[in-house]
Amino acid sequence: MRLRVGVLGAGSWGTTVAALASHNAPTTLWARSAELAAEIDERHTNQRYLPSVTLPASLRGTASVEACVRDADVVVMGVPSHGFRAVLADVKEHIRPWVPVISLAKGLEEGSYLRMTQVIESVLPGHPAGVLTGPNLAREIMAGYAAGAVVAMEDETIVRELQRLFTCRLYRVYTNRDVVGCELGGALKNVMAIAAGMGDGLGVGDNTRAAVITRGLAELTRLGVAMGGAPATFAGLAGMGDLVATCSSRQSRNRYVGEQVGKGRKIDEIVAEMHMVAEGVKTSRVVMELAERHGVPMPIAREVFGVCWEGRTAEQAYRGLLRTEARGEDEPG
Asked: Which residues contact 303 (CB under 8 A, 6 or more apart)?
């Protein structure tokens, strides 16, 4: 018997993962909007989030959480971090016991500082929790370009089954048991992408972007290791791979936010006009609280926080970075 998959969240990435899974297993995609659910189910499109893309005819759409998860053998959460817990509470009413729950969200919960798998364990104790992450730009994958990803879970048997479930054509999925590192790499890189985007908006050049990406990787690795992640994870797809893609691509929401700030626009105005969530804005505040808790210097993240929450400009942020004392490359700062 083939696994049945329920995916919650019909944004660009949730829809893409549902489309990938539908090649290997019967898959149902939940959309909050009844109109969007009907469009996915009947016309096999999602014009709001993936314009001009045709979805697999086998992919089913629904606006009912119950219909999405009641028969599912695997539940995938494609919901942004700020709405993650609330949707999980609805899932709890209908999910069968012991069904694995996989997070696609690249953020941290405000207030609790929890990773999304920790939120899953809190709301749905007894359900194996994991994460699918990596340098994955939804439109490129739907266009058929090759991509790599990591599925992380502590249970070796389940993670191997998930690897087979999500691997599809040119989408290659690797396994990893470092759930902490994989989640933190995905969340922390969004903050660095805002910094890289600010440089693009200011026109500072490729050398500066390369320096921001490299020093940003050093920052997120230090914090990630302090929080229990394995150093090697941050050099892989969930760390460096995701960071490079998000800091470089014109499709990156977080890089876009930074670029627009660099061009002189206000952060509230930028976020308000976006159809999709740029997780790095909210994550920057959580990251600074975690950095202080773990005693990890994060000068780039600190400047991004200043822009997102303290009214600083991109010019002020980059001047602040230039004032940071240069030390040994393997030293914090």
From this structure: 195, 312, 317, 318, 320, 321
| Whether the Cβ atoms of residue 286 and residue 279 lie closer than 8 Å to each other | no
For 5-177, CATH number? 3.40.50.720
Distance CA 28, CA 6 (A): 5
Which of 189, 263, 266, 282 is catalytic? The answer is 189
Distances (CA, A) of 175 to 76, 180, 238: 17, 14, 11
Structure tokens at 281: 């804005």
What integer pLDDT is reported at residue 304 of this predicted model? Answer: 96
Alpha carbon 214 to its chain centroid, in Å, reads 20
Q: Could you confirm whether 189 is annotated as catalytic?
A: yes
Architecture of domain 180-322: Orthogonal Bundle (1.10)
pLDDT of residue 223: 97
Give me the residues paired with residue 62 across strands: 30
Q: What angle do CA 239, 242, 244 make, to 5 degrees?
A: 100
Query: In the block, which residue shows the tokens 């969930």?
Result: 238
What CA–CA distance (Å, rounded) separates 278 from 255?
9
Residues 6+ apart with CB under 8 A from 214: none
Backbone Cα Rg of the chain: 19
**Is the pTM of the predicted complex or chain greater than 0.85?**
yes
- Mean pLDDT, 10 residues at a time, the chain of 333 residues: 91 97 97 98 97 97 98 97 96 97 94 96 98 96 96 96 94 97 96 96 93 95 97 97 95 94 93 83 93 95 95 91 71 68
Predicted pLDDT at 325: 66
What ranges do the domains of the chain cover? 5-177, 180-322
Q: Is the dihedral of CA 250, 182, 236, 191 positive or negative?
A: positive
Burial tier of 295 (Cβ tally within 10 Å: 0-12, 13-18, 19+):
exposed
